[in-house]
Write a structure and sequence with these properties.
The complex is a heterodimer of chains A (142) and B (221).
Chain A lengths: L12 H15 L1 H23 L1 H23 L15 H22 L9 H20 L1
Chain B lengths: L5 H31 L5 H41 L2 H16 L6 H27 L1 H8 L5 H5 L1 H16 L1 H17 L8 H21 L5
Classes of the chains: A mainly alpha (142), B mainly alpha (221).
Chain lengths: 142, 221
């Protein structure tokens, strides 16, 4: 098409239509695949539960843990920058630790102080305080 | 009169709405072509599809089979149209299931997950509308240098809280995937924010394999 990645200043209408067509076709897999396979996949899950209830429960927990593990790994992806003298890679790790600590404190308040209403807000509170902690942590390590 | 179950209705209307959305999305390049009186270049189209489609389709297919069991029927139909599944819709569904005290594979879990994802989508849309309306007064606040670190660290703040809840309840099955992902992300430079979406299905499959092994050996009793 005569375009060089990262150095496009002007697009023709034809080039723009080509790009939007390519991206539209490429990104919409889930939209057409879910209606075709969702019933079968979820039917398989129901059969799995009928065959072995305990394994079915472990199966679902494993899926959630797998997803969370990938993001926890990502949070540590810049940690190796410490060996090059930069502490910026520790910022997401510290923010994650603050958020986890807040979640533990909220959990303790719910259990020990019987603040049941607080459990509904545990995740938003840990999210907001974790994000807020990023401001001083970045000033410190950034 | 034949009674149709809730789940059958979800599948029926899910198919109707998803295929309708498919049509609407395909209309975008068509509409742009009509407005600008331009056709896609056939050679560019072919080269572009060969370069991008295999990667997007491979990830899309794996994500579909990975996320459907976690999201449930209603949640899947909604999420794959709205997007932002692993960093927004799924955490919302997970937290709602946890708060409601129901399991993902139960009927109650199906309803709770669908409501959580629907509310998340509605709130996102409302915030986007508010953002568009208030873009002028909000821009100096949102672009304030002092707030930028907070916006940049949303994922660690979200998964710190979420992780502590789920890992503490399932610590035995968490050790292997957490260690593997830490090692991979720390020592493989190619793994970063752009590839975390690809690593979710990898991590899920690895966790399932390890859990199955532990279950068979009686380590999860």
């Amino acid at each position: 098409m005569g375009l060089t990645f990262g150095s496009v200043t002007n697009l023709t209408a034809g080039q723009y239509v080509t790009i939007t067509t390519v991206m539209t076709i490429s990104i919409m897999v889930g939209i057409w695949l879910v209606p075709l396979v969702a019933k079968k996949v979820l039917g398989g899950m129901i059969n799995l539960e009928k065959r072995d209830r305990k394994w079915s429960e472990i199966f679902f927990n494993s899926m959630f843990i797998g997803m969370i593990s990938a993001f926890l790994g990502y949070i540590f992806s810049d940690v190796s920058s410490v060996f090059k003298g930069s502490t910026a890679g520790l910022i997401p790790v510290c923010v994650m630790a603050v958020s986890a600590l807040v979640m533990c404190l909220v959990g303790l308040a719910v259990k020990k102080l019987k603040y049941q209403w607080l459990s509904d807000y545990a995740l938003p509170v840990s999210l907001v305080l974790g994000m807020a902690s990023a401001i001083p942590i970045t000033a410190w390590l950034g | 009169m034949k009674t149709v179950s809730y789940i059958d209705r979800v599948h029926k209307w899910g198919k109707v709405w998803n295929f309708s959305m498919l049509g609407i999305m395909l209309m975008y390049p068509v509409a742009v072509g009509i407005i600008f009186k331009a056709l896609p270049d056939s050679k560019g189209l072919l080269l572009g599809l060969v370069a991008t489609a295999p990667m997007y389709w491979a990830v899309g297919i794996i994500e579909t089979f990975t996320f459907i069991p976690m999201l449930g029927a209603g949640g899947s139909y909604l999420s794959f149209v709205a997007g932002n599944i692993s960093n927004l819709k799924l955490p919302c569904a997970l937290n709602a299931l946890e708060q409601a005290g129901v399991k993902a594979n139960s009927e109650e879990g199906e309803v709770v997950s669908t409501i959580a994802i629907a509310v998340s989508s509605i709130v996102t849309t409302l915030i986007i509308i508010l953002g568009v309306i208030l873009i002028t007064p909000l821009t100096p606040i949102l672009q304030a240098p002092v707030l930028q670190p907070a916006f940049a660290q949303m994922i660690p703040a979200l998964f710190g809280g979420l992780g502590v809840v789920f890992i503490s309840k399932n610590w035995k099955i968490s050790i292997a995937p957490v260690v593997l992902m830490l090692v991979l992300f720390i020592f493989v430079p190619a793994l970063n924010a752009g590839t975390v979406g690809i690593m979710v299905p990898v991590s899920v499959l690895f966790t399932l394999a390890v859990s199955r092994l532990m279950y068979k050996k009686g380590m999860l009793d």
